[in-house]
Specification:
Layout lengths: L7 E5 L4 E5 L2 H19 L29 H22 L4 H22 L7 H27 L2 H4 L5 H13 L6 H17 L10 H8 L1 H25 L3 H17 L10 H5 L2 H22 L4 H8 L2 H11 L6 H21 L1
Antiparallel strand pairs: 1-2
Length: 356
């Protein structure tokens, strides 16, 4: 068998520029992995599997009447803490490389995650769970670099809203790869998200109607976050399968523990990366680690109580929080049009998540 070309990821911390060079082998491996997960899931009906909505800790509780809305506030908390973590990273660590910015939040969250893993029950694990980790972690690393670089170089109000494209990419990749049909709600949701992204740069439309889209391409943080959303559309599917073969809390903690170790392996290879930078600001680091851990716990607890589509739709309020934090903390400009654009994009996410 002819060996497949490996994907090449070129990182330059000194210049602050991230170059991602994909070989044909990377695309093929993603598609092959995608196909494997679909086929493997469809052929696993003879196995005893975990329920899709397990209990928050044991994975066995069914949702009872009277607690249907208990998921809403943890989901909202996940949205708020995700945006707050971005504020901490941009406010206190933006002088470091994008790699160091991301590693700091992971390193300081690591003790909390390990402690949490020791106090919850461990579900039985199978080969599929570990395959999900093996495929998901490298893709998560690409998204991780793009995400941190985006919030480092561009305003939060022009970067975070583009995470709304994740559910849009999910249904589009499902259409092209899995031959899933797009219904009218999915098409409407995608249209709203695209319209919202147009409004984010609406002031430039006075020059030409295409100017907002051109502004998106000129703003490095915007297209980097768009690439992040594309990768997240793949890792989200892999994560769903991993949760099916474990439990939400266990997966959330184990995934980030392994991801922290995976990211740390590249530390000697990153030009300019210094341990002193990681330890230079311990108080913001501890705060960021605690906020990240709270986000993980809130996310996994909420998703264990309700359908994933509902929970993710509420969590995407982080886009709105990001715009507001950009205005209050960083005094970013053109907040009105960016706020309107973010609201339109959230409406698109809600249409896809709840109706689509």
């Amino acid at each position: 068998m002819v060996s497949q070309p490996l994907p090449v990821v070129v990182l330059s911390a000194d210049s602050g520029h991230i170059s991602l060079v994909y070989s044909v082998g990377l695309i093929r491996r993603i598609l092959i992995s995608f196909q494997f997960f679909v086929v493997h899931t469809n052929r696993s009906s003879d196995r005893r599997r975990q329920p899709w909505f397990p209990d928050a800790f044991s994975g066995n509780m069914q949702v009872e009447e009277g607690i249907h809305m208990l998921w809403f506030f943890p989901a909202l908390c996940a949205a708020l803490t995700q945006s707050l973590n971005d504020v901490i990273s941009k406010r206190y660590f933006s002088e470091f490389t994008a790699y160091e910015m991301g590693l700091i939040r992971l390193i300081y969250a690591f003790p909390y995650l390990v402690t949490g893993l020791l106090v919850i029950p461990w579900p039985p694990l199978d080969r599929t769970f570990w395959l999900c980790l093996a495929v998901g972690l490298p893709l998560e690393f690409i998204a991780f670099l793009c995400y941190m670089r985006a919030i480092k170089v561009s305003p939060l109000s022009l970067t975070l809203p583009f995470l709304a494209f994740t559910p849009a990419f999910v249904i589009l990749t499902g259409f092209f790869i899995l031959n899933e049909r797009l219904n009218r709600y999915g098409i409407t949701g995608v249209a709203l998200i695209v319209a919202g992204s147009y409004v984010l740069n609406f002031s430039s439309a006075r020059q030409h109607w295409q100017s907002p889209f051109r502004a998106l391409l000129r703003e490095q943080g915007s297209w980097l976050m768009l690439l992040t959303a594309l990768v997240y559309s793949i890792t989200a599917t892999i994560g769903k399968l991993a949760i099916r073969h474990s439990s939400p809390q266990f997966f959330g903690m184990v995934y980030f523990i392994f991801f922290t170790m995976f990211v740390s392996m590249f530390f000697p290879l990153i030009p300019g990366a210094k341990i002193s930078n990681i330890l230079r600001k311990p108080l913001p680091g501890i705060a960021g680690g605690l906020v990240l851990t709270t986000m993980i716990f809130s996310h996994t607890y909420a998703i264990s109580l309700v359908e994933a589509a509902y929970m993710i739709s509420v969590k995407r309020c982080s886009l709105l929080f990001g715009v507001l934090f950009g205005a209050v903390v960083f005094k970013e400009e053109k907040i009105k049009e960016r706020l309107v654009g973010a609201l339109i994009m959230i409406c698109g996410v809600l249409v896809i998540g709840i109706l689509g």
